[in-house]
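I wish you would study the pair of lines that follows with an eye to the fold:

===
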Amino acid sequence: MTYQLNVAANGRVVLPADVRRRMGLSEGGALLVEETPDGLILRTVEQAVAHAQALARKYTADSPNASVEAFLHNRREDSGE
């Protein structure tokens, strides 16, 4: 669905109530804005975390050393602990 939103003089943009409801946003809810060559992407914090986790999986899926535990183990070995 596409909406036309207006930017107020103070820079505020109001999201339609049905969009806020579908995104689970209430008063004071946080959104992250990502600027891309194609425009802006709005994500809730939860969506942004899920997106970052998906990207991490994409680039580390085939690496046995991609886990936090493996990273810490390697750092300890490198430092002589």
Summary: Helices lie at 17-23, 45-60, 68-79. The chain has one domain: 17-79. The radius of gyration is 20 Å.
